Amino acid sequence: MGDRWAGRGARYRDAARLIAGLATTEANTYRFADAMIQALLDAGFPPRTAAWANWTVFYLILGITQEQQAESTETAGLAAAFDDAEFPALRAASAYITAGTFDERFEFALGMQVTVLKAELGRTVPASGDGD
């Protein structure tokens, strides 16, 4: 994602601080969702896609924030906990489970979401009456 995303990690963390730890029915959560959905609507996404994309980004932010706040001894020795026989895929990828910074992992995940949204924007939305 390169330079385009440089320095944005702090802003995402700020958004996470704004909403993390709050019930999903509080005003700050609504403000975040309203701004996010409006930006997606302005970009040309149908309402359902905008709402679901907001949901996806919102929970990415909450999840990475929760992981970051819990980071301490919980991740120390995590790879050793993956038994070869019981968790072979986790063991094979164990070097990457906690590799990189939170910003790097967040930017990777958000970049995947943006890539899918770009592809979705190019599709023709069927007139199915499902709210789109």
Commentary on this structure:
The protein is an all-alpha fold and 132 residues long. It is elongated, with a radius of gyration of 18 Å. It has six helices and no strands. Helix 1 (9-19) packs across helix 3 and helix 2 (27-42) packs across helix 3 (47-70). Helix content is 61%, strand content 0%. The longest helix has 24 residues, at 47-70.
Summarize this structure as a short list of keywords or feature phrases.
132 residues, 6 helices, mainly alpha, 0% strand, elongated, disordered N terminus, 61% helix
Topology:
Blueprint: H1 9-19, H2 27-42, H3 47-70, H4 88-92, H5 94-97, H6 102-121
Helix pairs in contact: 1-3, 2-3, 3-6
In brief:
The protein has 132 residues and is mainly α. Helix content is 61%, strand content 0%. The two termini are 29 Å apart.
- Anisotropy-based shape: elongated
Q: What's the story with the biggest beta sheet? A: none
- Runs in which pLDDT lies below 50 for 5 or more consecutive residues are 1-6
Structural class: mainly alpha
Mean pLDDT over all positions: 77
- Quick one: how many beta strands? 0
> Helix coverage percent of residues?
55-70%
Approximately how much beta-strand content do the residues carry?
A: under 5%
Count of helical regions: 6
CA-CA gap between termini: 29 Å
Radius of gyration: 18 Å
Order of helices and strands: HHHHHH
